[in-house]
Amino acid sequence: MKNTASLLAVFFIGFSAASAAPIIAYTEGGTSTSAAGTGLVGFNFTVNTDISVTQLGWYGEAVGGGDTPWVAIYNTANSATPLASITTGFTTTPGWQYQSLVTPITLTTGNTYQVVATLYWTQKFDPASFSYGTEINAVGFTTPGGWGGWGTPLMATNGITSTPSLAANFQYDPVPEPSTCALLMISLGSVMFYRRRPAA
Questions:
Q1: CA atoms of 115 and 39, how far apart (whole Å)
Q2: pTM tops 0.85
Q3: pLDDT in tens, the chain (200 residues)
Q4: What is the distance between the alpha carbons of residues 24 and 18, in angstroms, rounded to a whole number?
Q5: How far apart are CA 42 and CA 32, in angstroms?
Q6: How far is it, in rounded angstroms, from Cα 187 to Cα 21?
Q7: How far is residue 31's CA from residue 177's CA, in Å, rounded to a whole number?
Q8: How many C-alpha atoms does 200 have within 13 Å on its Cβ side?
């Protein structure tokens, strides 16, 4: 009984770690400055370990009128096809709004990606106090440029700025290391074995 309890504890601790709340790619900080105009704004980044993107987000003030802009995420090596995209809903609530992907996508260690959205008169922020998920390596934010409209997503290719205009963000889960997955499977298998073992 004691061994079974120990194995259950190992399993549920591992399961809880794997089921923790999603991590936000970046959280803005510093001082808000003058409003930006319209255009595409992207956040470029690399990842230092594989991650699973579960939600795409947009900044509430980036939604204008009754329009419903999109948010997309790209591998920057392929600007033609987004890895995933969503169409947002109109909101009058300032701040971040997130929408879950039907199928999460995995981003691979060492690649460069961009999460991008149509900007609509949102604020610029001094990034001095920005914080990032520990799995995220920030490359930078693009300057507002071009116009993606409210239709087909486009990758922003208009250069990096040191004063971000908020538009697109995402939430993710770290992909468990193979050793962690193996431990969870062994723990679960051991628990099932002890449960099925006939009484002496």
A1: 14
A2: no
A3: 545 444 433 333 344 445 579 999 999 988 888 777 788 899 999 999 999 999 999 987 766 666 777 899 999 999 999 999 998 877 777 788 899 999 999 999 999 999 999 887 777 888 788 999 999 999 999 988 877 677 788 999 889 988 888 889 999 999 997 544 433 344 434 444 445 555 55
A4: 16
A5: 18
A6: 23
A7: 38
A8: 2
